[in-house]
Specification:
Helix content: over 70%
Mean pLDDT: 85
CATH class: Mainly Alpha
Radius of gyration: 20 Å
Shape: globular
Structural class: mainly alpha
Length: 404
């Protein structure tokens, strides 16, 4: 587990979304649509900052997690039960989908490193994640894995600079929204891989460890906002660099279907080592996220259900184990099309995002919970715009799927 005492909570959020899903989704977006979807990355980063600020504010002011706050937000027993059921269901499904992408990404890395493929890799990754969570020994290798992911991010930024992209083309991609034919699924996936629903639960809980009750609330809120903005913006820069790099080196129409193909982006910076380095980075990103996602699901569920936050309790372990099993099963089922599986997983999170965000918005508007720190007009307008846009995309995607 990435511990917030060593890393700021904002970096915790960034580390959670810079995983194999982001690398694969951003690579696919750049390879197929050039710089046309850069505006989606910009929107996703702004949306992440807006929603994570609300989550962090909730945690700092109330000293409760989002799940705990939701449990106490509704007086009506039926409404409270329905809310808890909907949130737990959304988090369970969303994290299972996210876990599918994590395990698939780690499997792609292992396949590229060894030259061997098959469903066995998904089982091994799933078992490794479960073993690390069960015993707690994951802490012994977390620094190495996070360092590899961070190094891969730096290399992507360097390679994007080496590709000498057109500043005008980047500006147009960022500021002139377009939706090329066939871009809807990658578009929703870019949102889903950046604005991660479980991060809203993770952030509200982690800020309490970083800023104790002894720290004045105003100071804690100010420092938390800067922490969130800087860390998430850096993560957005990495995602944009991957899109730019992919756009420069996949204009030949190369199909993005494996880790070795995606590694071609890094050849200008790493030469013949690009394949090995990319595979190791993908494996590290997948394994790191494969542990964080089910753990976050367990925290969110425990908070919503009113269970004690005991990592060794049977109910807590049952939640993260169920997410790992589901993710592993889906990764095996979709193993023949790993890139498509990762895109699907991120898109599923994009569809779930509005549900979780609506409940977050409800809670942070309750003056009975946050008092003077409840949302104002601007925060509600920005949060509402994020929810409406994400929901509109989701409904449109569903309509195009079931329509004539």
């Amino acid at each position: 587990m990435i511990r917030s005492k060593r890393f700021g909570p904002g970096l915790l959020v960034t580390a959670a979304f810079i995983g194999p899903g982001t690398v694969t989704t951003a690579t696919t977006a750049g390879a197929k649509f050039g710089l046309a979807l850069l505006w989606v990355v910009l929107f996703s980063i702004l949306a992440t900052i807006i929603l994570q600020e609300m989550s962090a504010r909730l945690g700092l002011v109330t000293r409760r997690g989002l799940g705990e706050a939701l449990r106490g937000a509704f007086a009506n027993r039926f409404l409270r039960a329905a809310t808890i059921g909907l949130i737990v269901g959304a988090i369970a499904f969303g994290n299972a989908a996210f876990q599918t992408g994590n395990i698939t990404g780690a499997t792609m890395g292992l396949s590229a490193l060894t030259g061997l493929s098959g469903p066995g890799w998904a089982v091994i990754v799933g078992l490794a994640a479960a073993a690390f969570l069960w015993t707690g020994t994951y802490q012994t290798i977390e620094r190495l894995l996070i360092a590899l992911v961070a190094l891969m991010s730096v290399v992507f930024v360097l390679t994007a600079c080496l590709s000498r992209p057109s500043v005008r083309a980047i500006a147009e991609g960022l500021l002139l929204p377009t939706m090329p034919v066939g871009s809807l699924t990658p578009l929703i996936a870019l949102i889903g891989t950046t604005v991660v629903p479980y991060n809203l639960f993770l952030h509200a809980s982690s800020v309490r460890e970083k800023w104790s009750e002894a720290v004045p609330v105003e100071r804690a809120l100010r420092e938390s906002r800067w922490d969130t903005v800087i860390a998430v913006a850096l993560g957005g820069l990495v995602t944009m660099a991957i899109v730019v790099t992919a756009a420069a080196f996949f204009r030949r129409g190369t199909a993005v279907d494996s880790a070795s193909t995606m590694a071609l982006q890094l050849e200008p910076a790493l030469g013949r080592w690009a394949g090995w380095f990319f595979a190791a980075g993908l494996l590290s990103a997948g394994l790191t996220s494969a542990v964080t996602a089910p753990l976050a699901a367990a925290y969110a569920t425990a908070g919503a259900m009113g269970w004690p936050m005991d990592l060794r309790s049977r109910r807590f372990r049952a939640v993260w184990l169920a997410v790992i099993i589901a993710g592993t099963a889906f990764a095996i089922a979709l193993g023949k099309t790993p890139v498509a599986a990762i895109l699907f997983a991120q898109a599923a999170n994009g569809l779930i995002l509005p549900v979780v965000a609506v409940f977050l918005l409800i809670v942070v508007n309750r003056r009975s919970i946050l008092g003077a720190y409840a949302n104002g007009f601007l925060a509600n307008a920005l949060g509402g715009a994020v929810i409406l846009f994400a929901a509109a995309l989701g409904f449109y995607r569903i309509g195009t799927t079931i329509g004539p």
